[in-house]
Amino acid sequence: MAIPILPVSLKDREILDPVLKRAREDLGSTLALVQPIIEDIQRNGDSALREYTRKFDGIVPDSFVLDLSKLHPKIDSALEAALQKAADNIRAFHQIQIPEDKEIIVNGNRLGIRHTAVESVSVYAPGGKALYPSTILMGVIPAKLAGVKNIQIVTPPQGGELPDGLIAAAKIAGADRIVLAGGAQGIAAVSYGTETISASEFVIGPGSKFVTAAKVYLSGLGVIGIDSPAGPSEVLVIADDSANPIWVAADLLSQAEHGEDSVAILCTDSLNLAKEVQKEVDKALIERPKRGEMKRKSIEDNGRIFVFPNLEECFAFSDLFAPEHLEIQTKTYKEDLKKVRHAGSVFLGNYSPVAMGDYISGTNHILPTAGAARIYSSLGVSTFLKRVTWQEVSKESLKELYPHVKTLSEFEGLDEEHGTSVKIRT
């Protein structure tokens, strides 16, 4: 059988712990590989970028930067309509995320919050095993709504001819330009800037382990801000005996389709459903052979069907796992949502496959992976916003609160100037 069925309980840590620790990939060896590339790009700019692009992509574009205003992609009407509909839905959902500036009176003083956007963003759109115009929409549209003024796409040169679908997505989303550079060298180029490429303060988007390592390294240096460290794509499905096994199997395989290292897990309290899903996965791998080797390896290496004693343990395991995508296909899915604390994005009911969120529903598909949903959120408008706090202190409040400032500043040994700066105003 392609995907194993494992009867478990939360006490079976020898079975569950390896899965919970999945994809927290040790980036140490990868960081050692990308660091010299990054440093070379920082020192030598375009000349170093040309060498790495030739080495890793086999071609060097005439120009690394494409001005989107001068590009006129030709795509069929169906693709154009799909991209436009997706953009409209993404824009509508993310519009409600725009926060309000607020103020409050505290102890007679006016305190407040203003939200300001970062100045510039690069959105990485992977090449390689698949093309992702949807990622361009997901990255650019929230940044535009946040008020980011300078947005560029960074993507591998794709064999020297960038697909019109990617260009169309960039134009529909509202990006300014496209940078033809992939991998760690592309991340370094848009982070530091080169003779021809503008530097960005923030870099987002999924990519290979080399892209992730470059983002993490440059973020650690304080050169850029990033969304979250990204690992292989993953889905966890919680289902009871009301779920359709054919649909569940398709949802597991839709993640396996991303790559050999993708993770697909079903948690259920129904052994009968587990057996039916297992059978449907095997059947689908035969009937739908496209990307077959990739899907099979993903399912065999990283696929699991866990049969827990009850749904409560399924949800408890899910919170420990903190999946990128969580599907809840139960009779009580609306109530079950309240049990979820840690997940990148949740898909409720039998008619909400992950693919809807990947493309068209309007939520964002740039999500934390590898358990990072315990501390990170999905990409959204707030990703690109900073909170600027302000205060206007009244003369009366300053006088009233000075004794407390005096006490605290003396305790910290800073009364000489901190305390004095308040005292002289009284």
TrEMBL record:
Catalytic-site annotation from UniProt: 324 (proton acceptor), 325 (proton acceptor)
Enzyme class: oxidoreductase
Keywords: Amino-acid biosynthesis, Histidine biosynthesis, Metal-binding, NAD, Oxidoreductase, Zinc
Annotated Zn(2+) binding sites: 255, 258, 358, 418
GO cellular component: cytosol
Nuclease among keywords: no
Known catalytic reactions: L-histidinol + 2 NAD(+) + H2O = L-histidine + 2 NADH + 3 H(+)
One Gene Ontology molecular-function label: NAD binding
Pfam families tied to this protein: Histidinol_dh
GO BP annotations, alphabetical order: L-histidine biosynthetic process
Record text on cofactor binding: Binds 1 zinc ion per subunit.
Pathway assigned in UniProt: Amino-acid biosynthesis; L-histidine biosynthesis; L-histidine from 5-phospho-alpha-D-ribose 1-diphosphate: step 9/9
Chain positions recorded as substrate binding sites: 233, 255, 258, 325, 358, 412, 418
Requisite cofactors: Zn(2+)
Function noted in UniProt: Catalyzes the sequential NAD-dependent oxidations of L-histidinol to L-histidinaldehyde and then to L-histidine.
PANTHER family per UniProt: HISTIDINE BIOSYNTHESIS TRIFUNCTIONAL PROTEIN, HISTIDINOL DEHYDROGENASE HDH
Family the entry assigns: Belongs to the histidinol dehydrogenase family.
Protein name: Histidinol dehydrogenase
Name of the gene encoding the protein in the UniProt record: hisD
